[in-house]
Every structure is written in C-alpha cells, then in structure tokens.
Amino acid sequence: MLFLFFLAVALISAVVVFLWINAKMKNNKSFITGKIAGIASVICVISFGVSVSSLFTGNDNASTDSTVAVPKKTTKKSTSNNDQLGLSKKDVETFNQSLIDGLNEDQNYANSGDEGYKFSQYIDTLAYDSNRGLKIKVTSDFLNLSESDKNTVAGKAVGLAEAQLAIIGKNNDGTKKIHSNVYQSDTKLASAKFSNNREFNWK
User: Fold this and answer.
1) Cα–Cα–Cα angle for 143, 146, 148, nearest 5°?
2) DSSP string spanning 133-144?
3) How far is residue 186's CA from residue 184's CA, in Å, rounded to a whole number?
C-alpha cells in the first residue's frame, strides 16, 4: 500500500511538471507557476525514491516472514532399565553380595545340625544376572536326589534369594518373582516354570 501511495504522488507531481514544461515550450499561459513546478519536481523525485525503497523493504520482510524455523531435533537418552527386577548396576552388586552372605549363613546353620537349612548344603553358589536371572549352581551330590527333592532344594534357593532381595530393600512388598536356572558346573539342569518360579522343568 505504501508503495502505491508514493508512486501515485510521484506520477501526479510528474504530470504537473510536464504541463508546466509544455506550456513554456508553447508560450501558453498556465495556472502552474515556476515555483509550483519546482516543488512538484522535488516531490516527484522524493516520492519516487520512497516508493522504490518501500518496494524493496516489503520484499525483504516478505522473504523474512516466509522463512520457516525448523525446530532442532533433540535426542533423548534412553533411561529404561532392562533388568528383570528393575535393579541398577549398583543394586545388582549389592544383591549378589547379599546372596553370598545369606547362603553362607544358611550353610552354617545346616552344619550346626539345623535340618531346616539342609537344602543349602546342595548349593555351591548363587548369583544374579540382569538378563538371565538367578543362577543356582549345585554340588555333584545334588544329582543323586529325586526330582521332588531337587525341586525342594532349588525352590528354597529361590526363596533365599527373594528374602535377600527384601533385606536390601528391593522387594518389600514381596511381589517381585525371580526367574532362575539350575546348573551343575557348566551344565544346565533345569529352568524355573513361569507359572510358578519355585517349580522347575528338569532336563
């Protein structure tokens, strides 16, 4: 709009100047005086300059307005924990130490003649892995047990582990169930059932 206004003023002023020059050339009398013609010529030049300037300014603004800001993509670091029990790396270290301490304590009770802890004498080590769950390594004497007794020993090992998990404050409500596998040396003997983590499928 500004461009058109000043362009119109420039054209009107140019017409005034043209009429004055034309009258002078023909020696005709004109209502346009030299003073008016001079003012008109100045207005013409200024208006034309302003109109051209506003045209380029308008284009620059249009160009600026049409620029779409592209938002930067932010990559969120994954904070998900893939541990079966939702434990941190430090928690796993604490849990494994607690498993060792708990097993040693139960074996001491068994060695003192407490039949309630006799199962621990068939367990070599207990270790928890974030991906594989509880690894129950049994002694060679374990192989001589009946399947029913094997279930009892392995099930009590799971119970020991869940108790230790509660002791370190990671299973206070008792809802976390540990999946486990039984090994003798490097040979896998059984995996816990998903329907009941204290019963096992024996190979």
Assistant:
1) 125
2) EEEEEE-GGGGG
3) 6
